[in-house]
Amino acid sequence: MSSIEHVHPHPSRENVFGSNDVLSILRQRAWLTDGPTPEQLVFCEHAALLLGPHADDSPGLEELLTLVFHYDAVEILQSTDAHAVLSRYSARDVLRELAFFLLQPTPFDSDRFKEVVTLLKNKLELRGRDLFYPLRLALAGRPGEGELDRVILLLDEAAPLPFAVSVKSARTRIVEFCASLD
Length: 182
Description:
Number of helices: 10
Distance between the termini: 32 Å
Oligomer: single chain
Strand content: under 5%
Largest sheet: none
Mean pLDDT: 89
């Protein structure tokens, strides 16, 4: 799968969700108590565009949004899935290189995502799960498929916005994740 496929909506699934669906979930979960501001509305539109094609229903969309709004590295590292991912060949190398990359203060958007994937592929000569599962675990909070890449793309967009809960940026997440490793 090319890095371009990781950053665009899923082409074969219809998106039945819009910004109002995202806004409704944000209000129900008390992630948004005021507003919304114009910037939050833009975020809702972008979240619906990126996550909508990967959600079968409203609970599925809520589950993906939860990955944006809730992140606890200690909790993540206690899971069996995390142990399985971290025991794989070069998982810690992926995390180390990702951390070095994210220490740069540039927002982690689609272009930066493609850049880090290309860098990791070339430097570590990894592909597939060996590359993407540690990256997704550290930034989205769980290993999995391409829908998690869309969650990752929303982090730095949501982090500076005035939500009722603080959204951790990609940089904050990798620092917290690495600090929580034993």
